[in-house]
Structure formats: structure tokens, C-alpha cells
Task: inverse folding
């Protein structure tokens, strides 16, 4: 019975570490750019857009579709970076074990 208690205690410690890390990562921001830096997007670890910067030069050509594509590319890349960072750091703590409901 002692081994089972040890396993449960270790699982609780790991869950607390994962929870704390997830909260920390959700508060971080992740940045990406597109169009040679003409569009920059900043997202949180929760995949929320926190900032968007558009260089005025991106507006000079009047190509709205290109600007839309640049915005989507920057936002999607920042979100990808945030997801990969969360997955990588959570996996490092959990030893690669995917725990349901944690991440």
C-alpha cells in the first residue's frame, strides 16, 4: 500500500508543477512577423491576440488582400510558436506523458 501512496503523491506533485507551468506559459507572449517584418503579431499562451503592428509601408501598394494574408500569416505563426512552446515545456515536466485535461 505504501507504493500506491508514493505514486499518488508523486502524481499530485507533477500535477501541481504542470498547473503552475501552464499558468506561467499562458501569461507569456509570443511574437511573429511576416512580410519581412511589415506585420508583427503578439499572442498570449492562451492564443489570444495581444498586439498587431502594421508598418505604414504595407499600405502603400493598396493591395488589401496581400495585407490580409500578411496579418493571417503573422497571427498564425505566433499561435504556432505559443502552442509548440507549451507542448515542449509541458512534455519536459511530464516525461512525455500526455495527461488528459492538463494540456
Result:
Amino acid at each position: 500500500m505504501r507504493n500506491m501512496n508514493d505514486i499518488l503523491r508523486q502524481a499530485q506533485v507533477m500535477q501541481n508543477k504542470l498547473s503552475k507551468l501552464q499558468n506561467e506559459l499562458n501569461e507569456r507572449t509570443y511574437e511573429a512577423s511576416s512580410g519581412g517584418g511589415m506585420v508583427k503579431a503578439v499572442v498570449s499562451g492562451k492564443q489570444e491576440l495581444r498586439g498587431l503592428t502594421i508598418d505604414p509601408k504595407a499600405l502603400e501598394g493598396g493591395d488589401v488582400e496581400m495585407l490580409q494574408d500578411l496579418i493571417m500569416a503573422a497571427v498564425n505563426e505566433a499561435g504556432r510558436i505559443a502552442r509548440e512552446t507549451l507542448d515542449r515545456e509541458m512534455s519536459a515536466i511530464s516525461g512525455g506523458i500526455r495527461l488528459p485535461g492538463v494540456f
